[in-house]
Amino acid sequence: ELPLLIAVDEEGGTVTRVSSNPAFREYKFPSPRYLYDHGGLETVLVCEKEKCQLLSSLGINVNLAPVCDVVNEKTAFLADRSLQLPPEMTGEMIAKMVTTMQQGGVGAVLKHFPGYGNCDDTHVNAVVDDRTLDQFRKNDLIPFQKGIEAGAGAVMVCHNIVNAMDPSMPASLSPAVNKLLREELKFGGVIITDDLIMDAISSHYDSGEAAVLAILAGNDMLITTWSDERYQAVLDAVAQGRISPERIRESAVRILQWKMDLGLIG
Question: What does the CA dihedral 98, 60, 2, 179 come to, rounded to 10 degrees?
Answer without folding.
Answer: -40
